């Protein structure tokens, strides 16, 4: 919603952004001080002194990293919101196999030294990666007999004779699929996802992921600032009493006895429970540790992916870990957040393989959230509802949703180039001097 309010303001729309919370970012906020996190999860008492100063903590409620070459970074660059943020590269990406974690190889040398694969497997995998790197959907000469719109990914893996373990880590740690449904779909999307991973990795070398200093809560604040520069208004602590509808169309929002008139409304599912449907659940466990995660070379940040096949599940389990190096925790402390899509009536048992990797855990905060999708696409009502944040640990699906809402509101595709031109019109004069 914050990103859209920024983009809509740049597009010349008059934007009023209201939030019932006292902080920016709603569900994707970073909670500070630590005392507030204890309150939010109804934990008795206050954090022990060993946790350091409460103010040193900024704990994300929803863990996600940014792909270095991904859509959110493009949005940040084109809107110049990057000037309000500082990013650090995440030190490593790991994948779980047979109860142990292995670094996802990020260079050819690492791939050759990796114990994830045997020697012959490595050669075949390298061939496959070269193929993906050269693949260009507009140039049939790069297809080598594969039809990007028809050939399934399963067949592409067969073509390169890749074994099950390699397929697991390619599909889940590189292409970042949560389930194995992609295997029987046309391969174009998967190849593009692996390309995105490789190109993001090439930018910084350690991993393809970035993370903002002071936590993800900085992102919505950055876009709220962008909106303000273009004349948008932001109101925190603003309770929403009623959405005013006439002839099936939104005309305003009532708050504290007053009505703000509007032509279009963007909101998350929590504001319009009658226009959304539950599509699943996600469990997230925030863990505070006093040590880096074992077998990660003492990395101060990392991602671990547990592919579903390895733990007899349908969906992957993710762990994101950050630390005091990112100004989100007290000195010497680490925050690891495990998340997955709920599949059974005992979600805490489902996430156990991830928590076992983090032991000993000093304090944990468990949340189980319902996932909602809009049943009303806004065509008639002009109410545009976002989807709940999923279990993935990057922003690509969120950006797809932003672009989808933009298209439904504006009737045209979101165009980065157009944003660029608008920006030049406003800042153009200053830049020439």
TrEMBL record:
Subunit structure comment from the entry: Interacts with RHOH. Interacts with the GDP-bound inactive forms of RAB3A, RAB3B, RAB3C, RAB5A, RAB5B, RAB5C, RAB8A, RAB8B, RAB10, RAB12, RAB35, and RAB43; binds RAB3D to a lesser extent. Interacts with DZIP1; this interaction negatively regulates the interaction of GDI2 with GDP-bound RAB8A.
Gene it is expressed from:
Gdi2
What name goes with this protein? Rab GDP dissociation inhibitor
Q: Which residues cross the membrane?
A: none
Ordered alphabetically, the record's keywords are:
Acetylation, Cytoplasm, Golgi apparatus, GTPase activation, Membrane, Phosphoprotein
In Pfam terms, one family for this protein is GDI
Has the keyword Phosphoprotein been applied to this entry? yes
Which biological process annotations from GO are given for this protein?
Answer: protein transport; small GTPase-mediated signal transduction; vesicle-mediated transport
């Amino acid at each position: 919603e914050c990103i859209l309010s920024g983009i809509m303001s740049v597009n010349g729309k008059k934007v009023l952004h209201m939030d019932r919370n006292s902080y920016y970012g709603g569900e994707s906020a970073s909670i500070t001080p630590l005392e507030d996190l204890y309150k939010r999860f109804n934990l008795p008492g206050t954090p022990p002194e060993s946790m350091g100063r409460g103010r040193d903590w900024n704990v994300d409620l929803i863990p996600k990293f940014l792909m270095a070459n991904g859509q959110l970074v493009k949005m940040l660059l084109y809107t110049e919101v990057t000037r309000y943020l500082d990013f650090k590269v995440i030190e490593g990406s790991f994948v779980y196999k047979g109860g142990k974690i292995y670094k996802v190889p990020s260079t050819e040398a690492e791939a050759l030294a990796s114990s994830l694969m045997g020697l012959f497997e490595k050669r075949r995998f390298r061939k496959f990666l070269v193929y993906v790197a050269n693949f260009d959907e507009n140039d049939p000469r790069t297809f080598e007999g594969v039809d990007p719109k028809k050939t399934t990914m399963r067949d592409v893996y067969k073509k390169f004779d890749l074994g099950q373990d390699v397929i697991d880590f390619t599909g889940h740690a590189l292409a970042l699929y949560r389930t194995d449904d992609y295997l029987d779909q046309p391969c174009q999307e998967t190849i593009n996802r692996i390309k995105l991973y490789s190109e993001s990795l090439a930018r910084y070398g350690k991993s393809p992921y970035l993370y903002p200093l002071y936590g993800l809560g900085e992102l919505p604040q950055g876009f709220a600032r962008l909106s303000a520069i273009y004349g948008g208004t932001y109101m925190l602590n603003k309770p929403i009493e009623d959405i005013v509808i006439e002839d099936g169309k939104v005309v305003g929002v009532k708050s504290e006895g007053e009505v703000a008139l509007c032509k279009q409304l963007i909101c998350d599912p929590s504001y319009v429970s009658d226009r959304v449907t539950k599509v699943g659940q996600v469990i997230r466990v925030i863990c505070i540790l006093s040590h880096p995660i074992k077998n990660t070379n003492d990395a101060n940040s990392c991602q671990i992916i547990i592919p579903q096949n390895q733990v007899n599940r349908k969906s992957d389990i993710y762990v994101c870990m950050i630390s005091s190096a990112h100004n989100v925790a007290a000195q010497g402390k680490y925050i690891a957040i495990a998340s997955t899509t709920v599949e059974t009536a005992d979600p805490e048992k489902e996430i156990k393989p991830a928590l076992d990797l983090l032991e000993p855990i000093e304090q944990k905060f468990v949340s189980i959230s319902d996932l909602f999708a809009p049943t009303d696409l806004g065509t008639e009502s002009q109410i545009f509802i976002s989807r709940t944040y999923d279990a993935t640990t990057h922003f690509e699906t969120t950006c797809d949703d932003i672009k989808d809402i933009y298209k439904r509101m504006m009737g045209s595709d979101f165009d980065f180039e157009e944003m660029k031109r608008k920006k030049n019109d406003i800042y153009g004069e200053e830049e020439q001097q």
